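Tutorial handout. Part one gives the primary structure; part two gives the three-dimensional structure as tokens.
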Amino acid sequence: MDTQITSYLQSPLCLYYLVRVDRPRAWFMAAVMRGTEHVCFDRALDKKENIFEFFVPHATESIFLELIAYLEKEGVVLEWHKQENRFLTD
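Part two.
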């Protein structure tokens, strides 16, 4: 069986990332992510702290990480980390 399919069947929930962005350029980050159809779903988690949450399918994680690296290099993303999907713990 294809390893991506096997991985998905073992863990059907998306990968979960928290990202803190430069507030004036948050719109740019959202536009970039939404312009990459089906790579991830983003949502503002904490508007005061400029933190977004991203739900990333296993199959598109490498594309997502390339985008995050580019946005970090450009100063749009200030910090980010992967953590357990919050729907597993809620």
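Part three, for discussion. Residues 61-73 form the longest helix (13 residues). The chain is about 40% helix and 30% strand.
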